[in-house]
Amino acid sequence: GAVVSQHPSWVICKSGTSVKIECRSLDFQATTMFWYRQFPKQSLMLMATSNEGSKATYEQGVEKDKFLINHASLTLSTLTVTSAHPEDSSFYICSAEDDGAYEQYFGPGTRLTVT
Amino acid sequence: GENVEQHPSTLSVQEGDSAVIKCTYSDSASNYFPWYKQELGKGPQLIIDIRSNVGEKKDQRIAVTLNKTAKHFSLHITETQPEDSAVYFCAAPSPPDKLIFGTGTRLQVFP
Fold it and tell me: Which of residues 27-66 of B touch A (CB under 8 A)?
């Protein structure tokens, strides 16, 4: 149980284009999902908390107009990187909170490369 | 807010030996402490967690111990195997719903 999927697993896009990443909880409903960014050999950096049916809460320093988050259902959250630039290249990981408080299950991650 | 420190940053052990990773936290009200294993190019996987109403939890070769007084918790892996090689992250809660992660420990198990 507690399986989270992400799509795509990797994507290459040109500078200036937008990319959408999907995060799905496959066997449970997630009121809350989280989006993280991870640079090589570093820890997880929380970008935003996504609650179903309401606006996402962004961490300090994360541009909400650049990283658009939509949590349209209890099993799906999407992250859209708008007008991507090479510095947006990173590993993006989502997680979903299961029943237990703070219990997060992670997706496999999406490797974004902006050329 | 919560602050989590994790040590060591790297750990090398011989296959069959034990490995111990330690984390400290700052918020005495914290009550949930998970450990995640992340293999190269993959998302973190929850391997064990503990809530503050117990001092130790075991699952086969892995165990987590919690010392609330000292505000630290540790991951213990016994009889290590090469497939245990990965980066391990601890975390502690930051209300209302976030987790604060440690900086990670790269564990290498040599055959």
Answer: 32, 34, 36, 41-46, 49
